[in-house]
Amino acid sequence: MTDIKSDDKCVAIIGLGLLGSSLGMALRGQKWHRIGWTRNPETRDWAVKNDVIDETSDDVKKILAKADLTILCLPIPIIMNFIEQHASEWRSGSIVTDIGSVKQSIVECGEKFLRPFGVYFVGSHPMAGTEKSGAAAAFPTLYKNAEAFVTKTRNTDPDALKTVLDFWHEIGVKPVEIGVEEHDVLVAHTSHVLHVLALALTQAVLDCPPEQQQQRFAGCATGFRDTSRIASSSPRMWREIIESNQQAALVTIKEFEKRWKHLREIIENGKFDEFEKEFAHGKELRDKWLKYKNW
Question: Which CATH number describes the domain made up of 184-293?
């Protein structure tokens, strides 16, 4: 690894898939010196060659020992396994955060295993991503104008919290403080249930006898493409997310079922004036959201 000036701040990006590599790209030209690691040596070499990170090493211990701030860009179970396995290898006083979409289990793990070594853990969840995966799918504007939820608990160090909030702000992300339980309930409503619905929609439309499938394919256009897009996401990743947030996901699915049943009953009873009012209300809500996002 190359020598770094003492006044430079080092950020370690652990995991160089879509999110980790896009993060490295977003940090180009920032004050942070980017050091990165993933198990695949070819991906590490690619990341250096393509200015995703500034340097890497075969030995993850060297990277962790050098980092002022570490971002764990790994699947949920691997984040927790990595923390437990490598807890003693971070430098005392350094800060660790993550990009996991479930927070309570990750934050509890981070605080449990890192606090005894004087390492500060602050959970993060940037609301960014696509249905694609892998380093080849990364792009530098993935995080642009996104929000990042940053968790605060009774154990959170104020200076560490500020460092993580400032980090996200520096790359054009709006950081939002939130509690861990509040976060997991929120994302069950705003993200997790959407993937379950996209899955059910895709199956309802396309899972048909083989002799009908070509006709179904021909009948699906941009509306189906747009509403089913996230059904192309990683099945393994979404199994891990739903498994880690099972109870909140179930609550949200049940809330959706009530609204779906209500709309079905309206249609069954021929109350099309009421259906139009419901559709108008949905349009109003979505238009307000688009205005909030400035889209």
Answer: 1.10.3660.10
Distance CA 95, CA 124 (A): 12
Sign of torsion over alpha carbons 77, 79, 84, 86: positive
Could you identify the residue written with the tokens 């991503």?
129
CA 283 to chain centre: 27
Report the alpha-carbon distance of residue 146 to residue 87 in Å, rounded. 30
- The domain locations on the chain are 9-178, 184-293
In the Cβ-directed half-sphere of 206, how many Cα atoms lie within 13 Å? Answer: 14
User: What is d(CA 134, CA 138) in angstroms, rounded to the nearest whole number?
Assistant: 7
- Number of Cβ within 10 Å of residue 80's Cβ equals 22
Q: Which two tokens stand for residue 31?
A: 């004050």
Q: Dihedrals φ, ψ of 176, to 5°?
A: -130, 120
CATH 3.40.50.720 fits 9-178, yes or no: yes
Three-class SS state of 97: strand
pTM of the predicted model, to two decimals?
0.90
pLDDT in tens, 179-236: 999 999 999 999 999 999 999 999 999 999 999 999 999 999 999 999 999 999 999 9
Distance, in Å, from the CA atom of 48 to the CA atom of 71, rounded to the nearest integer, reads 17
